[in-house]
Design goal:
The chain is an alpha+beta fold. 38% of the residues lie in helices and 16% in strands. The chain has helices at 13-16, 133-136, 163-186, 193-217, 222-238, 242-257, 263-276, 309-315, 321-332, 334-340; strands spanning 52-54, 58-63, 72-73, 78-84, 87-93, 99-101, 108-115, 122-128, 141-146, 156-160. The strands form 2 sheets. The chain has a 5-stranded mixed beta sheet, with no helix packed on it. Strands 2, 3, 6, 9 and 10 form a 5-stranded mixed beta sheet that branches.
Length: 342
């Protein structure tokens, strides 16, 4: 694998397009090895671990650099399923947001091998059970925590204990992002009332459901819904009413300090609450509505101690403010940016 495996992060409209929410953050990406991606990984015997009981082998791969607290999704990680040391069943790679799933695996005992150049390998015993309706929703998905070879911490696996709630949160975010992408594609400088009304309906429904989820589970962390499920919950909070955002801020702060959410998450929500209260933001993540921009130049809400904002942004994993402004222009006025390219 090349030295670019932890390459410069890409930013997706699908992830952070939002009505007057201009917040972006990186997602971990591990490039595919140069060899055939379907070539099985080498078998490693599991040691000292009881088999994970599942009805479907699926989950998410996440990565944290040495010394980093929060984890982000890791795409392109190769995963081989073995029926025996000599018999591999299939090899796949984690997809968008680190998600992976093996299709049509018969009940039985297996070993899951996870690896990529420069990463500590994982060997996981798996027991696949028959897909009976009464137990399917109670069987966990897998959260694969990957670490570099030189990291003092080991790679490990934990269960995602509520895969049904995880799936619900991911579906809620899909609806949230689909309508916002429709809004952007229609043209943010030519608002469509029908689109905005539908967006408001989706946000209102998601807000009520998020209130129910928090009442039942408190903050839905990675152990409950996976890193992608927890990130989905965070994005839904970003689109909620200010009173609910203020209520969620201590939960998000605790999750960030515990390494369960990215620093960018905490920065985005803190700034959003401060701006909502009419106070200067800390990290410069919040821009004014497009109607208040200087043409197509983003206008940010006031920032406290703006001279040192890039230092604070770097501490939570955000890129410099100048680059942020440029990406906002490219995101919200893509046709203009294409015309300006030489």
């Amino acid at each position: 694998m090349s030295n670019n495996r932890y390459r410069r992060p890409q930013y997706s409209v699908l992830l952070f397009s939002a009505l007057f929410l201009f917040g972006f953050r990186p997602h971990g990406a591990i490039a595919q090895p140069p060899q055939d991606k379907n070539t099985p990984l080498e078998y490693i015997k599991p040691t000292g671990r009881k088999p994970f009981q599942v009805v479907r082998i699926e989950g998410q791969t996440v990565f944290a650099a040495p010394g980093a607290k929060g984890e982000s999704s890791a795409t392109g990680v190769r995963i081989t399923l073995f029926r025996s040391p000599q018999a591999s069943v299939a090899t796949i790679s984690s997809k968008e947001n680190g998600r992976f799933a093996f299709q049509s695996v018969a009940p039985g005992d297996y070993t899951l091998i996870v690896g990529a150049d420069g990463l500590q390998p994982l060997s996981i015993p798996i027991q696949v059970e028959a897909d009976h309706p009464q137990n399917a929703a109670q069987r966990p998905a897998l959260l694969l925590h990957l670490r570099q070879t030189e990291d003092k911490r080991n790679s490990f696996v934990t269960p995602i204990t509520n895969p049904a709630l995880r799936a619900e949160l991911l579906q809620m975010v899909k609806e949230d992002q689909d309508i916002r992408n429709t809004w952007i594609q229609h043209g943010v400088d030519h608002p469509d009332k029908a689109i905005e009304d539908r967006m408001s309906e989706i946000d209102a429904h998601n807000l009520e459901r998020m209130k129910e989820i928090v009442r039942q589970y408190r903050w839905p962390g990675p152990d409950l819904v996976g890193v992608d499920g927890s990130e989905a919950a965070f994005l839904l909070v970003q689109h909620a009413q200010l009173t609910f955002q203020k209520e969620m801020l201590p939960h998000v702060r605790r999750a960030y300090r515990a390494g369960q959410l990215q620093g960018q998450d905490y920065a985005l929500l803190l700034d959003r609450v401060l701006v909502g209260e009419g106070k200067p933001q800390v990290y410069g993540t919040q821009a004014k509505p497009i109607a208040e921009w200087n043409g197509q130049e983003p206008t940010l809400y006031p920032i406290q101690d703006e001279a040192n904002v890039d230092k604070r942004r770097a501490e939570v994993g955000l890129f410099p403010l100048a680059e942020y402004r440029k990406m906002m222009k490219e995101m919200y006025f893509p046709q203009k940016q294409q015309k300006d390219k030489p």
